[in-house]
């Protein structure tokens, strides 16, 4: 819904490209998000922040008109929420399962992620056939995000326990020269971030 709304309200392809680029480029922050979550043990708190970021992006988009900065803020909120979820959700799965069940747990996670895409897309298709406006569709998406937020508060994921030795190792690795980081690592982080962007474009 994002790209058609930007074109409909502003008529600017350049703005649409800028917003989508901002969302994609936010994937570079994935290592930092993971480090902060491990360093301070705030995985569950950051998950809530991610969900509220998604809700904020929908609220901003609901009220946005032609102001460029509003759409850039929407892109920023989507980037924060999407990348944080992509980093944190697998962490919760791996933390809560024994090693011999982790692969199956991750496969279930990705199945549910795409199931969510199918459900949301199907709902949008149905309400489009019913003649709902863009604003009504955004309200429906806000309701779905609110359901997710309430669910996380009622039944939060188990706390992620990070051994002290691993925290120290993370601290040391962050202080190393950035030249030692390979481009492959960043590509691996950016690849999953492209999926939400592609879904937004469609």
Features:
transmembrane transporter activity; membrane; disordered C terminus; Growth Hormone, Chain: A; mainly alpha
Question: What topology does this entry show?
Answer:
Blueprint lengths: L1 H9 L2 H13 L4 H11 L2 H21 L4 H29 L5 H28 L4 H21 L9 H12 L7 H19 L1
How many distinct folded domains? 1
Radius of gyration: 18 Å
The succession of helices and strands, N to C, reads HHHHHHHHH
The main β sheet shows up as: none
In angstroms, what separates the terminal alpha carbons? 7 Å
InterPro entries: MFS (IPR011701), MFS_dom (IPR020846), MFS_trans_sf (IPR036259)
GO molecular function: transmembrane transporter activity
Pfam families: MFS_1
Keywords: Membrane, Transmembrane, Transmembrane helix
In short:
This is Major facilitator superfamily (MFS) profile domain-containing protein. The protein has 202 residues and is an all-alpha fold.
């Amino acid at each position: 819904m994002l790209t058609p709304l930007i074109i409909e309200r502003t008529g600017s392809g350049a703005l649409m490209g800028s917003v989508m680029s901002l969302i994609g480029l936010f994937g570079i922050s994935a290592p930092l998000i993971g480090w902060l979550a491990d360093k301070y043990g705030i995985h569950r708190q950051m998950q809530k922040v991610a969900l509220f970021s998604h809700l904020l992006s929908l609220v901003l988009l609901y009220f946005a008109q032609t102001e460029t900065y509003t759409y850039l803020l929407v892109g920023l909120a989507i980037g924060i929420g999407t990348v944080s979820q992509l980093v944190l959700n697998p962490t919760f799965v791996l933390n809560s399962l024994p090693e011999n069940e982790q692969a199956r747990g991750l496969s279930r996670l990705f199945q549910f992620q795409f199931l969510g895409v199918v459900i949301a897309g199907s709902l949008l298709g149905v309400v489009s056939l019913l003649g709902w406006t863009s604003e009504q569709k955004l309200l429906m998406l806000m309701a779905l995000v609110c359901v997710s937020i309430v669910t996380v508060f009622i039944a939060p994921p188990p706390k992620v326990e990070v051994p002290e030795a691993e925290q120290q190792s993370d601290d040391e690795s962050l202080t190393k020269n950035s030249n030692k980081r390979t481009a492959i690592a960043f590509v691996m982080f950016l690849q999953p971030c492209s999926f939400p962007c592609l879904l937004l474009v469609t």
